[in-house]
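Troubleshooting: if your tokenizer reports a length mismatch, compare your output against this known-good record of 447 residues.
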Amino acid sequence: MPVTINLPDKVKFIIDTLAGAGFEAYAVGGCVRDSLLGRTPGDWDITTSASPWQVKELFPRTVDTGIKHGTVTVMEEKEGFEVTTYRIDGEYEDSRHPKEVTFTSSLEEDLKRRDFTINAMAYNEAQGLVDIFGGIRDIERKVIRCVGSPTHRFTEDALRMMRAVRFAAQLGFTIEEGTRAAISELSANLAGISAERIQTELVKLLLSSHPEEMRAVYETGMSRIFLPEFDRMMETPQNNLFHCYNVGEHTIAALMNCRSDKVLRLTMLLHDVAKPLCKKVDEKGIFHFHGHAGKGAEIAKDVLRRLKFDNDTIARVTALIVWHDDLPKLEEKAVRRAIHRVGLAQYPRLFEVLRADTLAKSDYRQKEKLDNIRGYEQIYEEIMAKQQCLSIADLAVSGRDLIALGMKPGKEIGDTLQYLLMHVLECPEDNTPEILQKLIKIVQKPE
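Known-good structure output:
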């Protein structure tokens, strides 16, 4: 039965315009794959027998996004579509870019250079689906398989190894045996790939519906190259009542127990990163990991910097790691102090971190801890609903008020505001100008 894909009007227009000028043109790659899977394509790429310069002549608005490698972006209204000439790649000298490309009139030659069979299909309404390498079959079998020799494909661009695992994670597919074996054999080649490119694939994997594919990243040897800390986690047991997994497997379980959010998934990936360094064994053979949260934040900061994450992401993730093991006494004043100590910006994500961490542990006292987390969250919600004072900015008096009362600008004002805040965290009802001014007079030193 013929396959039909509903092409967007702008894509049809570009394909029809090229065909009307005597050239072949097809939607190609990921947009075809996603359409066949019932997913909404993020981008629509087009491949054509027309040269870049012929494409430029046919469309009034184009951008030379990669003309050396045959790519021109055709602008239709305010939307851009990459149109790439059929090509044959020459030798790859940097595990990323071919040294040269040769334009060709053969669609088959163009599809032959692509990474995986599910990404090597083309479609237009006149010819239907072109599937030379068994992409449809691999979609039906839910398999990630290289086009041709996996060794050759991964030698061309080592990042394709990470892409294989990422696609498996996003689609719920498995990696074909020969393809996986080649990843294990060539994983060291990832050392030549930029941190930025690795970061992009890692985040896509973590945000997928199957973040447990981090296990495949470890098993194939890739994490040893760009995230050796994860290898140490996968090799560190946790012999105590609260745990049923080693550190790495606990981390994977925690990833699976939190929603798809970049900060949350990175936090869960690295929340126990210091445990291999902090491990102590007592006289009964029980493992303890004292201080792993604070040390983990330091290591996570180094890891995220190495992978070129932005400063805001690093700050948010490391703050959550510092406090991922902190559970205050379930009373308002203790929770107010905790919010002040932790920082309001970490909420409500912190509750998700606490929950994911707990759900990835053994059943021992798990329900009790989950109940405590919910109690913590309920008190936090009540505090927020009452708009209680949690920071110096929330005080009913300011530094300007203290100056008006005769204080000189400087350390004394800062110390006084801090004293007032500590008092109000204990007694939120005292956060009024009248009461705070009385307190100021009590603590003011005589001249």
